[in-house]
Design brief:
mainly alpha
């Protein structure tokens, strides 16, 4: 398969950073390139959560119920999952720089249109446009950086990419809550316009030009008709599980079965088409990549799924507003930011197999307090637990992704990065749906007639909250036990991650063929 990012740049273009500088430290050019990538990816990551705190306002302004307004979030996530598989092909076909800039333009256009939406149908449609642009930003940015830095510095480079991935879900509710309360909900979309303009200007200035390959990397049309629709059905099925009787509902099972069938057909197709497929599933035969993929899925479940529970606990049990609830999530982001640089350095030196288990232990420890929550649990204890949880996330997610990508052939990095982002998205969707279903059932069992799943989206009068808060808190604690179990299961795939740093293999040849089944 051709490798777009290793071609010589056109005359006059800035040469890409090289990995043969003789040292392991990140030089200034790669750090600057990482900041350029962050300027674009932060928009897409923020928009996965920034709208959550505005759902009630949107429902009121457009006069529609939760079953419809939820598509403002779900439509965006489905679009993200749909377009990610196209990223590897697009990079091979047009070059990473062109794909990056096109994605920014599409995302900013969708943001402007969403901010100008005149009814709920137009808002949902424009959120899909946002998702189509945002879905390619993260994997393209990862590919740009990984191809620039090489394997010796992968841990530290991936830690740079991980900043928006971990901070975005925390900053999103804070920024969204502040804008909704102090400005207007339309500004949660308009805020992307100046950021997008800056990201586009920085890309023109700092991202090195690369050559496109024309027809040498043909689009896998059959794979395109199988894999993205399969993900759409899976994500849609998972999103309906929280509002239509859980995973046992026949309609939900039907959507999930249809999605699994399309994905299974794609697997057979990919095995036949091999490296020319949209995603070469033979990459998963690599033990490290396969184990890391399972771990990334579980991290997505724990990270994105728990972000559904945390603000709801503060709002529904403790009566806090959206902005305050967002602020109370900040310790998790602080912990992640503190841990990621050190985790990247340690991963390069000792291997992910020695770093990630420590992260899992911290994640588990930080979740225990939430399994015991009541309506009077100390905010100091909960904030300290979130800080520990953030340290665990910072030491888990990016080292795991690094271990998967660093041993892939350089020509397979774009598709490998895309695959991991797809898996992360599916893990988050699964976690959100599963934990929402469990929470709804827990509330219904403890507060008969209390609204079940709807209780997480409406305002509870203070007088009513004082009476039922202990029961609702108990439902949250039970649901967090599931989150804790899913976190602990991470240790199984982590046992198969490498326990040697990248430097221990610098002299080993990197195979250019994908591993065979």
């Amino acid at each position: 398969m051709p490798e777009s990012t290793t071609k010589a740049p056109p005359e006059g273009a800035a040469p890409p950073p090289r990995d043969d500088s003789g040292g392991d430290r990140l030089d200034r050019s790669i750090i600057v390139l990482g900041l350029v990538v962050i300027s674009g990816t932060i928009m897409a990551v923020l928009d996965t959560t920034i709208v959550n705190v505005a759902l009630q306002t949107l429902g009121r302004d457009f006069g529609t119920g939760l079953s419809t307004i939820q598509w403002v979030v779900t439509g965006y996530l489905i679009a993200l999952g749909t377009v990610i598989p196209l990223t590897g092909w697009a990079i091979d076909r047009f070059g990473a720089r062109r794909v990056w800039m096109t994605s920014i333009v599409l995302f900013v256009a969708g943001s402007a249109l969403a901010g100008a939406a005149w009814n709920i149908e137009s808002l949902i449609a424009f959120r899909v446009v946002q998702g189509l642009g945002g879905g390619m930003l993260m994997p393209t940015g990862m590919s740009i950086l990984t191809m620039a830095a090489g394997p010796r510095r992968m841990g530290r480079v991936m830690s740079i990419v991980g900043v928006p991935m971990l901070l975005g879900p925390v900053l999103g509710p804070i920024i969204g809550g502040w804008l909704v309360q102090n400005a207007d909900w339309r500004w949660i979309f308009f805020v992307n316009l100046p950021i997008g303009a800056l990201a586009l200007a920085l890309a023109l200035w700092k991202i090195p030009a690369d050559g496109a390959h024309g027809g040498r990397a043909p689009l896998d049309l059959r794979g395109l008709l199988l894999l993205p629709p399969g993900f759409v059905l899976l994500i849609y099925g998972l999103s309906t599980a929280s509002g239509h009787g859980g995973f046992g509902d026949p309609a939900t099972l039907g959507w999930l079965a249809g999605g699994l069938a399309l994905v299974a057909l794609f697997v057979l197709h990919s095995l036949n088409r091999r490296e020319r497929a949209l995603i070469d599933v033979r990459l998963f035969a690599n033990r490290t990549f396969g184990a890391a993929s399972i771990a990334v899925f579980l991290v997505g479940v724990g990270l994105i799924g728990s972000l559904l529970l945390l603000p709801l606990y503060y709002q529904e049990v403790r009566g806090e507003g959206a902005f305050t609830a967002g602020l109370l999530l900040a310790p998790q982001g602080i912990g992640a930011a503190l841990a990621m640089p050190l985790a990247g350095l340690l991963t390069d030196r000792f291997g992910a197999g020695r770093v990630v288990p420590v992260g899992i232990a911290l994640l588990t420890l930080g979740t225990i307090a939430y399994t015991q929550v009541t309506d009077t649990t100390s905010y100091w204890l909960l904030s300290a637990s979130l800080l520990v949880r953030g340290l665990g996330l910072g030491a888990t997610m990016m080292p795991t992704m690094t271990s998967a990508i660093v041993r892939l052939p350089r020509s397979a990095v774009p598709r490998g990065s895309s695959s991991l982002n797809i898996i992360m998205q599916l893990g988050g969707s699964f976690g959100s749906a599963l934990l929402a279903v469990l929470l709804a059932r827990g509330i219904s069992d403890r507060v008969p007639g209390g609204g079940g799943g709807e209780a997480g989206f409406g305002e509870i009068p203070d007088a009513v909250r004082e009476r039922i808060a202990p029961q609702i808190a108990e439902a949250f604690g039970t649901t967090f036990w599931t989150a804790l179990a899913l976190t602990a299961v991470l240790i199984v795939p982590v046992l198969f991650l490498p326990r040697k740093g990248a430097g221990a293999h610098d002299d080993a040849p990197v195979p250019e063929a994908a591993p065979h089944l």
